[in-house]
Structures are given as C-alpha cells and as structure tokens.
Specification:
The protein is mainly β. Helices cover 4% and strands 48% of the residues. Strands 2, 14, 15, 16, 17, 19, 22 and 24 form an eight-stranded antiparallel beta sheet that branches.
C-alpha cells in the first residue's frame, strides 16, 4: 500500500510518553484519501489525534466498492523502508508484485505480509478479471531498530487460525489472541485479528493489560467496550485492560489492533520509515536515482515518482498531538 499524498508531512512517532496506563475510549474519525486511479480510502492512522497503536503506524480502510465496471485498485510500483505491510481483504482480489520477484493474488481471509527491511518496491492492482466488490484494509507495522535493515521478504498465509462459537468468529491475522497464534512473522509484541459478529451476539476477549488497543469497524456497527463503532472510524482504547467486551445488534465485523507501546521514535514520510529526516532524504534520493530498490517485474506502466520533501525541518512530535 502506498501513501499517494503529493505533499506528505514528516511525522515523528513512537515513544511511550504519550501512552497512559489506563483504559480510554477515544473515537477517531478517518479522512477520505484518493488512492490510485479509482479507489478512495478512509485513512485512520496516522491522524491528528493518534500516530501509533503499538507498532501499528498506518491504517487505511476501503470499500465496499462496486468495481464491476471499474479498474479497481491500481497502485503503481512504489518503495518502502523500515516497515511491514499487511494486506487484508474481505471482498475482492488484489495482485501483489514486488522487487524480489513475488507475484501473488490475494483473496479474502489470506494474509499478505511484506517486510520491507532495508528497501523493497511493490505494486498493487485489481486483476484484469476481478469480482464486483472490493473491500479491505491496508496496514503498516513499524520495524524496531534491530530488524529495520533486514533483507526484504514476502509471505502469503492462507491457513490462519480461526475459532467460532456463540455467533462470534475470530480470525487471527498477526500475533496472538485468545489462544490463536498467527503464522505471520512479527518483530515486536503485537496483535491483529478480525472478529465477525452475528446479530445479537456478544463476547468478552482476554487482552494484555500492557498492550494498547484500537478497534476498526470493517462492516456494520459494532459495540466495543460499550462504544458504537461504525466503518470510517477507529476506537482507541489505550492500555490497562485484561478483558474487552464486543457485541453487535446487527451483524458486523471489526479488526482489533494492539501491541506494546512502541518505545523508539520513528520518522514517517511518504512510504518510508526511518529515524531521522536526513535518512528519509537518502531513501527518497535512492528511489529517484534508481538505487537501493530493484525493479517490480511484470508491471506495465510507470512507477510512482517521490513527492518533494518539505522545506521546513522535522519538528519532534510524540505519539499524539
């Protein structure tokens, strides 16, 4: 997934000073952002109110969109550093290509996990022959210092653990929840899971008091800790819980994201994560000069050009504004 903002701000994120040790219920609205030729996403993280949830540092929710007579998602090759991308679909198909030679069609319920490490480029497209509906989420996970220069990699998992009962189905995406463990590689303590809730169903999940959590409504209205959450919003829950109640009057689905507060300060700009503004500048120059990032083979079209860096110097900011 790419940030296609033509004038993206520099953001310094991370650090524990902005994370309280108590539960909160902070409903954060998304903003509509065009992505590629025909897709509009709801950008929920980073936002004016919150920049990270554990190591999760970027969340886009899109659809459900009628793409029966549309090209669907069309995101040209673009670079990443210092992060993992998590591709998650509820409806439709996405063709992933990257600069290490991966080519994979992603479908609902499967995990596409790309580790950028020191540098990778990829493209995302709806296949020429695709379904009528496109609906999903794209997320980034910041890599800690000891792993952020690792070799790039791509993993595709179709056998994610699932547990159903009482009208609630839990599918683990990353990390661990309620005894379910994802096969996806993680580099810091975190969790990502999708819960599908039947009409009138409710559950109480065991959660880690030291994790901060947030809930992203994917479909329908879901009540999380007594707060109604609808698509287009993200409920930040903070830390300090050992259990979390989730229910739905009508059928719905929610993604639960969480993790230990990310202690390191990171710098995010466009599709790069680094530690300083100078480092980000080097990544941008490498992309523009054809260095560091290999070619995405098989994509018919031009790659994305990097936007200009802002003239203003990076101002230190915490996890929340």
């Amino acid at each position: 997934m790419s940030d296609l903002d033509i004038s993206p701000p520099l953001r310094e994120c991370g650090g524990r000073e902005g994370v309280g040790g108590r539960p909160v219920r902070e409903l954060l609205p998304g903003r509509r952002v065009p992505l590629g030729e025909s897709t509009v996403v709801r950008r929920l993280l980073p936002s004016l109110g919150r920049r990270m949830i554990g190591a999760w540092c970027f969340v886009d929710h899109y659809g459900p969109d009628d793409v029966a007579d549309e090209p669907g998602m069309q995101v040209p090759p673009h670079p990443h550093t210092g992060l993992q991308t998590v591709s998650w679909l509820r409806d439709g198909e996405i063709l992933h290509r990257d600069s290490i030679g991966s080519r994979q069609v992603l479908r609902p319920g499967s995990l596409g996990l790309m580790t950028s490490g020191a540098g990778i480029a990829h493209s995302e497209q709806s296949p020429a022959s695709h379904g009528d509906v496109l609906h999903g989420a794209q997320l980034w996970v910041a890599l800690p210092e000891e792993h952020r220069h690792t070799a790039p990699g791509w993993d595709h998992h179709t056998d994610l653990p699932v547990e159903s009962g009482g009208g609630v189905t839990i599918r683990i995406v990353l990390g661990e929840l309620a005894g379910l463990v994802s096969p996806g590689a993680v580099f810091s303590p975190l969790v990502g899971a999708q819960l599908d809730i039947s009409a009138g169903a409710a559950t109480t999940l065991p959660v880690e008091p030291d994790f901060e959590y947030a809930a992203l409504a994917m479909h329908g209205r879901v009540d999380v800790d007594g707060v109604p959450v609808e698509p287009g919003s993200l409920l930040y829950l903070g830390c300090g819980r050992d259990r979390l109640s989730i229910s739905a009057e009508h059928a719905g689905a929610v993604m639960l994201l969480g993790g230990e507060p990310f202690e390191e300060k990171i710098v995010m700009w466009w599709n790069f994560i680094g530690r300083t503004g100078d480092e980000i500048r080097r990544y941008r120059d490498d992309w523009e000069n054809g260095e560091r990032f290999d070619v995405v083979t098989g994509y018919a079209g031009r790659r994305l050009a990097a936007p200009p860096l802002p003239d203003l110097p990076l101002k230190p900011r915490g996890r929340q504004r």
